[in-house]
Amino acid sequence: MNKLTVGVLTALAGAVLLFSLLLPRLSGGDDGGAGTVSAQPQTAPQQNDRRLAVRAVVMEPQTFENRISSTGTVVADESVTLQAEVSGRVTSINFTEGELVNAGNLLVKINDADLQAELRRAQYRRNLAEIREQRMASLLERNATSQQEYDTALNELMVIQAEIDLINARIAQTEIRAPFDGIIGLRAISPGSYITPQTYITELQKVNRVKVDFSVPERFSGMVVQGQAFRFNRQGSENTYDGEVYAIQPRVEPDTRTLRLRGVAENTDNVLLPGAFVEVDLALRAIDRALMAPSEAIIPEMGGQSVYVYRNGKAERRQVEIGVRTDRRVHITEGLAQGDTLLTTGMLQLRPGMDVRIAEIRSSAQQ
């Protein structure tokens, strides 16, 4: 390639570059680059406005139902560990594991052969004592014997009857019966086992109705009453169950600063098992016409809380009193009124009397 060719190519490249630079100006005409200036009418006022842009909510009254979320444990309505009152050999087991048993059913029988022999001997003695007492009573009516001799015969009969009652009580101790209707658990003994009062036999659970134990923070102790409704669900299930508070511990736990509650719930299908973990949702009293502020709008300070409200284009600081607090909202009991415009952003930059511009506004009832 000779020098003439190189020179021609260089000239062409320069012409193309010059044309590309002049093309936007030629296409813009008299507007002088309207493509970039067209956005200026929207952004220029905002760039020149030195007021702080903030978001706000208009305070509107609403019905607020305060709710507490807690965790709890399912407890059987009645529960007992079955153990023997006396030592002995098991002669019979009269239940099937996991079945429903009724109150009074004989579950386990311990050998009572010696007691049965004692009972028969005492019954024979009672029969003789009854005959003697009747004979002495007949003689006493005819004045053929003394009152003292009759009293002695009657006393002997009563002593023998007391011995029989004692033997029957000891025999009853060899019988383990169901104290209430419930579902029997897994047994830990077999026929022929020698058991003592310390031997674990099985458990009996009454679960057609269950209890739910849970706790609430101490500050809510004055808002919980007997008969208060709550809802709960268990892990592994999407079903929600209804319960009712029926007992309140009369003291606050000093270690956790919580108040223990116990509720009851129907369990007709027996799906709620004792010991299960549940999540509890307890509804406290409803507050009518409550002013609820976003929690980010509250400024903590020494001795209380304050907020900023929008008034005549400026930020005005006000002291407020708060009530119940949730994870996102705070109940304002004093300091704000219906219709006040509460600032919710720019808390660190705001100062009393500062000029502000509201960039976004909504109703507090829409939170």
TrEMBL record:
Residues 212-283 form the CusB-like beta-barrel domain. One of its GO terms (cellular component) is efflux pump complex. One of its GO terms (molecular function) is efflux transmembrane transporter activity. It comes from Cyclonatronum proteinivorum. Signal peptide: none annotated. Pfam families: Beta-barrel_RND_2, BSH_RND, YknX_C. The lineage of its organism: Bacteria, Pseudomonadati, Balneolota, Balneolia, Balneolales. InterPro entries: Beta-barrel_RND_2, MdtA-like_BSH, RND_pump_MFP, YknX-like_C. Belongs to the membrane fusion protein (MFP) (TC 8.A.1) family. NCBIfam families: RND_mfp. This is Membrane fusion protein, multidrug efflux system. Residues 79-196 form the Multidrug resistance protein MdtA-like barrel-sandwich hybrid domain. Residues 292-357 form the YknX-like C-terminal permuted SH3-like domain.
